[in-house]
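Complex record, two chains
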Amino acid sequence: MSAPVAPFPQVDHQRAVFADGLALDCGMAIAPLAVAYRTYGRLNAARSNAVLVCHALTGDQYVAEPHPLTGKPGWWESVVGPGKPLDTDRYFLICANVLGGCMGSTGPQEEMTDAAGRGLGRPWGTDFPNITIRDMVRAQKRLVEHLGIARLLAVVGGSMGGMQALEWAATFPETVFAAAPIATAAYHSAQNIAFHEVGRAAIHADPAWQGGRYWEAGGVPAQGLSVARMVAHITYLSEQALTRKFGRRLRGDTNPRGALTFLEDVFEVESYLRHQGSTFVRRFDANSYLTITRAMDYFDLAAERGGDLAAAFRGTPTRFFVASFSSDWLFPTAESRAIVRALNAAAANVSFVEITSDKGHDAFLLDEPDFHRALGGFLAGCADRLGV
Amino acid sequence: MSAPVAPFPQVDHQRAVFADGLALDCGMAIAPLAVAYRTYGRLNAARSNAVLVCHALTGDQYVAEPHPLTGKPGWWESVVGPGKPLDTDRYFLICANVLGGCMGSTGPQEEMTDAAGRGLGRPWGTDFPNITIRDMVRAQKRLVEHLGIARLLAVVGGSMGGMQALEWAATFPETVFAAAPIATAAYHSAQNIAFHEVGRAAIHADPAWQGGRYWEAGGVPAQGLSVARMVAHITYLSEQALTRKFGRRLRGDTNPRGALTFLEDVFEVESYLRHQGSTFVRRFDANSYLTITRAMDYFDLAAERGGDLAAAFRGTPTRFFVASFSSDWLFPTAESRAIVRALNAAAANVSFVEITSDKGHDAFLLDEPDFHRALGGFLAGCADRLGV
């Protein structure tokens, strides 16, 4: 497999490459399969302390170390590290960039291959197959096997990471001692699909997108992707969080009653959103955004089982920790309760907590001591049980 | 004043033109001032039965008759007509296109004028002044005077129309016997400002916008405006309404598990949103959208009064009818309650109703019998009181 041909600064990601590739839900196969990943802590002799962390839509494998493109701290340093809920002194943490992502795993910006696995000298772009959350999980399963781990102590993830945790438990129950789906749902709601569609429409509307072949012109659809990020970012916050952060404060010396003929960014919240949008495009690929949002939209664990979510978990040996946040309107508590009801109906071992927070969906990434205590306690209990 | 120079099909709107123009909150004056309007019913001999209807962000003066560009029914035909809550057999209804709009009133697509009121042979575009909700109300006041009406029986409006109803009562209390602000707030929230900013960013990102001078190239920023409409439309609906309308239904014969390399519009909700976006651009001007969303964002009745909303209404002779809808998350009931609390603190005459509905913000435009009975009853009581 030759080097990626993306317009991004090249990073020498740590990767496992599987020459035989992966069969996808859509019926296509993709070969070779590359899975970029990072690990933290040490695998014990019994190989029983491995915890897989699954990242969200725009996350990556750099969980607890600086991001190689932005230099910003890892996205879950509040949770992962020595003495933290995902204690790297006790557990061996693995996080892989999802299939379809843009941080080294096989995805739209990596080199396209033919059926024989030969590189075609151009990125997949929009020819990248239509993938599902289960395809992402299957790719992670290959990595876990590659690392010599027969059973994971736990699979943990928030948002789209939580979808993966659910899919892991549904697809590979014997491989998952415990699953912690956080701030997530067993299907993507009509409203969430609609917000994704706005983001995709913004990318499609950007002439720099070039029908997905933007590498040919050497540009990226930065403005479209930026608008997509802006609208998504609003859904990650609560009204309270936005109000606390910005309220209706005006920026600097702008004056809405003044004789300005045209104003941009007069409210601080606007400046903040534009900043969020413009920094995002430096680290994320637009075609990956299209691919991964679609995978989320397709996610519906019950649909393939005649609408019976409990059927996904009947007889499961996995223990579950389900957590939601009271002000999360993207994945509201009601959707976590639906998961818990199905797990109860499947007679699964499940604990559920709704964390009172006014920080919205983003709360799972932030400093939420009650959440950290609950997650850490659940994992420690599982580890004690396994003698880790 | 010469004909407008917009890229739209030209419509011969009914207009009142005021050569002396209007002084604006920003310090500029604009002359001449054109106010396009429609009336329904007959003004009685005492001139005491006039009801002003204020339209929302993307509304217009065609309340109860087909839209001249789209041919669709008037936007409030469920409420306005013979025997309806705004009974055209009893009341004389007036609705004006707002200042800054694009259906005949002075706005960004109309011909720019200099300080002496001379036409400059090009549209205002982004040189149109920065306007406020109060400027819109002042323009309507000129129309009401022009029609020979000293006091309105009522000012009624939903969403941005409700902001105007509140501003009317605050600015011209002696001219407003009754005010009905519906599904609205006394200020625009940080979240609502943020959603507007996404829409504006999408318009700015469209290269066809041309820095606002799109008339020069003869095009319109259709894709940017369409994305703006899509995101706004989601905020007008509730999750329940979206789910009931579309759920997760896939369109036609598309198949997410099939070997499709790239899919658009696979969910019905996406097709619907794209349709909403693409039809909107046929009737609405992008620079108007920028101007009017800004005016909404600036709206904060309490801010100019040291944060004391009650000060806007102290001693008011106006009767108020405040209505909200339980599933409206754009203007939630809490914001209507804040208005009611301020009116109570100002010892005003106020009635409040929260209508139970799962239709979201759009409920005020739809068939909601409880709402229609409440609004109709309030207005009839006011009319009885005035002997109309």
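Note: Chain B is about 30% helix and 15% strand.
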